[in-house]
Design goal:
single chain; Topoisomerase I, Chain A, domain 4; 2 domains; two-stranded antiparallel ribbon; 6 strands
């Protein structure tokens, strides 16, 4: 039960990392770059994917078609102010985005961001491990599990943490390769 709880929390951290890294641009157009940009739609914050269709028109271009044309300006402003360096062109029906070529400086900056996001994921893994570790120790002190089982569970927990940290490293290395590939 304890290990399953830790595994669920650690898996959430991995999924969050994957989703977070998918938003970083690699020089190729991807809907993930813009789909989670928050805009003001109908007086409340919404993600672009909730108000428009996002299509990849070619390797370097995206097209965004709002379901409600009155949101065109809000989407355009949201993308411009997102800090991604994207400049949408509004043709009245679609927003067209040409993904600019990555410079060496941009690539190195993104690698630093990957490092930060990777470290955040490792911190979440450690927090999950420590929370479950505390539960196991309290269960042993409360007489719910014997001392031998506590040591076995703690060992399993450490092994699980190492496995998830390896997964994080693999995901991070893969994204770095994508970004550094010209």
């Amino acid at each position: 039960m304890y290990i399953e709880t830790a595994q669920e929390e650690m898996m959430k951290s991995i999924e969050f990392l994957k989703q977070d890294l998918s938003q970083l641009r690699t020089g190729r157009a991807s809907p993930a770059m813009v789909e989670n940009i928050i805009i003001d739609a109908y007086g409340s914050p919404m993600a672009v994917k909730g108000v428009a269709s996002i299509m990849v028109t070619d390797a370097k271009s995206l097209a965004i078609e709002p379901w409600d044309k009155s949101l065109m300006k809000a989407i355009e402003d949201g993308i411009r102010s997102s800090g991604l360096g994207l400049n949408p062109v509004n043709d009245g029906k679609l927003l067209r985005i040409v993904v600019p070529a990555m410079t060496e400086e941009n690539r190195r900056g993104l690698v630093k961001i990957i490092g930060q996001k990777t470290e955040d994921a490792r911190i979440r893994i450690r927090q999950a491990r420590e929370e479950v570790r505390a539960l196991i120790i309290m269960a042993e002190e409360g007489g719910d599990i014997p001392e031998d089982q506590r040591y076995a569970l703690l060992e399993d927990l450490d092994t699980l943490s190492k496995e998830f940290n390896e997964k994080i490293k693999i995901i991070s290395d893969e994204k770095e390769r994508d970004i550094m590939t010209i």
